[in-house]
Amino acid sequence: MLGLEVEAFEKISPQFEGVVAARVVSVKPLSGSDHLLVAEVDAGPTGTFTVVSGAPNVRPGAVGVLALPGAKLPGGKEVTERRFGDVTSSGMLCSEAELGLTSRADELWLLDDAEPGADVAQLVGEDWVYEIGVTPNRPDCLGTVGIARELAAYYGLSLRVPQPQVPESQESVSKFVAVEVQDQENCPRYTARYLWDVTVRPSPFWMARRLELTGMRAINNIVDVTNYVMLELGQPLHAFDYDLLEGGKIVVRKASEGEEFVTLDGKLHKLDADTLMICDAQQPVAIAGVMGGENSEVRPETRRILLESAYFKPESIRRTRRKLAINTESSYRFERGVDPNGVVRASDRAAELMASTASAKVAAGVIDVYPQPHEPWQLTLRPKRVVQVLGAEIPLSKTTSILKGLELDIESTSDEQIAVRVPTFRPDLTREIDLIEEIARHYGYDSIEPDLRAEIDQTLAGRGRDRWLDRARDLLTAMGFYEAVNLSFLSTLEAKSFTTEPDRLVRVRNPLGEELAWLRPSLLPGLLASAVRNINRRTESVMLFEHGKVFSRRGEGSYEEHTALAGLVTGAFALRHWRGSPRLVDFYDAKGAVETLLDRLTGEKANFAPVELPWFDLSFSVAVKDRTVGVVGQLAESLLQKFECEQSVFAFELSWDDLRDLCREERVYKPVPRFPAVVQDLALLVDEQVSAGAVEEVIRKHGGPYLKHVELFDLYRGKQIPPGKKSLAYTLRFQADDRTLTEDEVREWIDQILEALKSELGVVLRPR
Amino acid sequence: MGQEADSLLNDVKTARASFEQEIAQVDTPEQLDQLRIKYLGRKGAVAGFFSRLPKLDPAERPAAGNAINQLKQFVTKAIEEKKRSLGSTGPRKPVFDASLPGTPFRIGSRHPLLQVLDEIVDIFASMGFSVETGPEIERDYYNFEALNIPPDHPSRDLQDTFYLEGDKLLRTHTSPVQIRTMEKQRPPVRMIAPGRCFRKDTPDATHSPTFHQVEGLCVDKNVTFADLKGVILAFAQKLFGKDVRIRFRPSFFPFTEPSAEYDFSCPMCGGKGCRVCKYTGWLEISGAGMVDPAVFGFVDYDPEVYTGYAFGMGVERIAMLKHMIGDIRLFYENDIRFLSQF
Ligand SMILES: [Zn+2]
Q1: Which of residues 121-150 of A touch B (CB under 8 A)?
Q2: Closest partner CB to B335 (pick from A434, A488, A537)
Q3: Gap from CA of B252 to ligand 1 centroid (Å)
Q4: What is the dotted CATH code of the domain comprising A467-662?
Q5: CA B307/CA A331 separation, integer angstroms
Q6: Percentages of chain A per state (helix, strand, coil), in multiples of 5
Q7: pTM as predicted
Q8: pLDDT score recorded for residue B62
Q9: How close B75 gets to chain A, by Cα (Å)?
């Protein structure tokens, strides 16, 4: 409810039973083995047992954990008695890993203060792990204290934060460490502490367990402390092995161009002059805020530590992180902005924990290079503005208590304005609107009532959807086409197969893969791929259409896009039915769809003219009123082979942008004819070379004013027709608006038509 | 008795005899019908006999008329009976079977995703929002900068972007249309921007590198967060029914402040919890918020005078919820067995 989304929530319970605390009473070597030991252990009321163990840290007096015979371990393992020569081992002493608690498997888990015989599952108890999504504006919530602060404010509780008590010794830090910040712009604050007499060993169970439950890996007490404090306070820390730092000195500077550096994960990086580096007196030892170096890493034999806690400029860390492609918990926090005034507290907390877990001695004081301290900044909030933005009246007292809960200092309050100081851990609060959001969050979005009475200015609601496109889509679906939606991306083969200008194809700079590298120059490749997919899935009759943007490149960084409308037909013309199998589709079906569509949209007859395009074997440009709006044709056989399509495919593609202009906005009613028509059929013998279009044109031209309709109803070749000829049969309809035409009148026009057909095209009536 | 009358009565008698013969031969309704026309039709035998009556001596007419009427009654009755008997024994022709499948008309349908998109657009259009569009290849400025997402801003990580040459990219949301609209129009503005968007997501059950979004914007004097909740509530109820409730949760977007994620109560289970809502009772829909004053700065609106809200929604997600579709890729496969269900 606060914008901290609980993405997952898990209750963690120990996955073992029958495991008890047991004090090691005595240890002796197992005869015949060079590494196994026989231990007598005292498990209090449970009894005394003899166990065999190979762990290096079995020693008298230690309290380990004993899995008794019959105990159940994680993964369904059950402990049994085992014989080692003449010794019977009654159970086993376990490591944390064997109990599924952490990944630490090298040593036995030793308990510090458990009563022998105590049930270990109970000692461990239950834990809860919350996975919380933190939005990028809230670096303060990248630590448990920040989350706790939000919850405390929301529930009106008081917040208890760790108050580090550092057991500092007499020796001053300045005796051992010097810090020089050369790039103060990108490193506004750098602090260092010095610790010595450090014992590097596994960190205590509670710390390792918590780190590993949050997904980090327990390494050793020094590294673990830096990670633990980061998870607690949100401040990343870095521990250097002091003895590996030349001259006990830290220099913060930019890398030199081309400088090479090996990070502690063993990877070699080539740096540029923009990379902020942490160096010793001679060489880099860490990429600032991102990752430490192999050359200064804390090792088991490390005795002295230099502890870094700093504030780096977010932009600088972000640039470096992106350039080097290293994402770390540390860079994640620095690039979102840590609290510049929380740097020392984190250092103190880490020193306190290192003193207790690594028996470290801590030098007095902190080297703190912070030439221009960040101060909490002032903001004012107008309660009236809160109402203006949120539409809810929030009492002034509620407003101030929310701000206080978030640790904002309220300097003055009136009905007109509230003046606050924003703590430096909230870099997201820089404007009044940011405060209003805080009020809304903590007041509760759900407490703001929806207002349904908003006035609608009807003059604004001008534009709805493109109704002509709607009409086109209705027409195509009525004709049997399904509407398709394809991705806008194509493979190289697809893109190059459907363009005449390959250098105008648009390539994505960072494509998902070569299969999706180009923006479509045409809708046809997507439709073809969809058709092939259907055919492969045994739907062989496919009619699809799609409308959408197609793209082309005009020049460097300059592109064009326009809306296209395309369709495709393949397979049978009709659905199967018991009265007989339907015919296969052909060119005329694609052409007919275009004719119907254009007629219904524009009220005009479409004209078709041959055109050559590499992806068609047979194709025609489509024009309406002398304006070319697209193409229709049969997809090329060679192309279909490439796309593994074994049946003929006919397709059309229209420019919707052009067609849209031609759509007839106004329709004026024409009277329905009142007088009957005279209908005359003509069967003509036509030379194969003469097209039906030419014949029809002559008929229309010479048919006179009453010829209202010419329809080809039969095309015949074969018996009774001489070779090289075809028979075309037309129905002609003559009609006048004001009277019934006489047979004689019509006869005159027919004669005129026949005469013209004969003289212009050599076409004659087919002999009976 | 005159010769005419004699001949007429004789013919009537002969006709009756030949009718009896002929009707015995009839075994289909069609044949029976032909027989009926032959004897009882307008130009049939009976009518022919009646037409000869005037030629008879007036005194002989009643008797002759009577004989013809008897023939007529006899024929009519015999045909009726035959018709009934034909009906009961059944014809030898194939039986007409109305249970055979009718003609399967081939019609297509609009794509389910676009049906949902159209529905969303129509709902907002009915609430007074105008429909605006913009290019799919956008400039960095409109897609990010003017939406208060400067270069190097961490929130650019949230959206993996496809880049083209120069400052051009494939828009990651339809929010750039807000900026383009505000640039050319002074408040009040009340618009939605439906359209295709692109993010560099590897296709899986819930991600597609191409997807559809509807973005809404309202800027005027006195536009509040409460109005935003009102418009989202009205939309939710028009889309999923009037029992749907809404929930707003704080979130972060660079171009809105305060920002919210909004949810609808699950219309499948009424909020009680089911598989669709993963037993939470709520469906996460998308993000919304009050337009950040910084955005107004880019289009030169005075944030002291005007306030506004903006909201977005993913069309795929809503279509998946509406039709219980579990895999977003189905929308982009165009399998006719899928498309024909809508
Ligand atoms: Zn549900």
Answers
A1: 135-138
A2: A537
A3: 26
A4: 3.30.930.10
A5: 36
A6: 30, 30, 40
A7: 0.81
A8: 87
A9: 41
The mean pLDDT value for B260-289 works out to: 91
For A11-127, which CATH superfamily applies? Answer: Nucleic acid-binding proteins (2.40.50.140)
- Residue B326 Cα to ligand 1 middle (Å): 14
| Length of chain B, in residues | 342
Ligand 1 center from residue B265 Cα (angstroms): 8
Looking at CATH, the fold of the domain delimited by A168-369 is given as: Phenylalanyl-tRNA Synthetase; Chain B, domain 3 (3.50.40)
Q: Is the pLDDT of residue B157 over 70?
A: no
pLDDT score for A7: 86
Residues 242-261 (B) with a CB less than 8 A from some CB of A: 246-252, 257-261
Q: Give chain B's largest Cα–Cα span.
A: 127
Q: Is B319 on the interface with A (CB under 8 A)?
A: no
Minimal C-alpha gap between A266 and chain B (Å): 26
A261 to A266, A286, A309: CA distances (angstroms): 10, 8, 21
Six token digits for residue A717: 């070749």
CA distance B91 to chain A (A): 23
Establish if B219 touches chain A: CB-CB under 8 angstroms: no
Any chain A CB within 8 A of the CB of B99? no
Determine the Cα–Cα distance for residues B300 and B306; give it in Å rounded to an integer. 11
Which sequence spans correspond to the domains of chain A?
Answer: 11-127, 168-369, 467-662, 678-765
CB count, 10 Å around CB of A746? 22
User: What are the chain B neighbours of A337 within 8 Å (beta carbons)?
Assistant: none
Which tens digits make up the pLDDT trace of B93-140? 778 888 888 988 999 999 999 999 999 999 999 888 999 999 999 999
Beta strands in A291-392 (DSSP E): 291-292, 305-311, 361-364, 367-369, 377-381
d(CA A585, CA A542): 10
Q: Does any CB of chain A come closer than 8 Å to the CB of residue B263?
A: no
Contacts of A495 (CB under 8 A, 6+ apart): A505, A517, A518, A519, A520, A521, A525
Low-confidence ranges of chain A (pLDDT < 50): none
Assign domain B112-339 to its CATH superfamily: Bira Bifunctional Protein; Domain 2 (3.30.930.10)
The domain segmentation of chain B, as residue ranges, is: 3-89, 112-339
Partners of residue A462 in chain B, C-beta under 8 Å: 130
pLDDT at residue number A5: 85
pLDDT tens digits along B204-245: 998 999 999 999 999 999 999 999 999 999 999 999 999 999
B241 C-alpha vs ligand 1 centroid, how far in Å? 14
A678-765 CATH, one of 3.60.10.10, 3.40.50.720, 3.30.465.10, 3.30.70.380: 3.30.70.380
Contacts of B279 in chain A (CB under 8 A): none
Whole-angstrom distance, CA of residue A274 vs CA of residue A288: 11
What span, in angstroms and rounded, lies between the C-alpha atoms of B233 and B242?
9
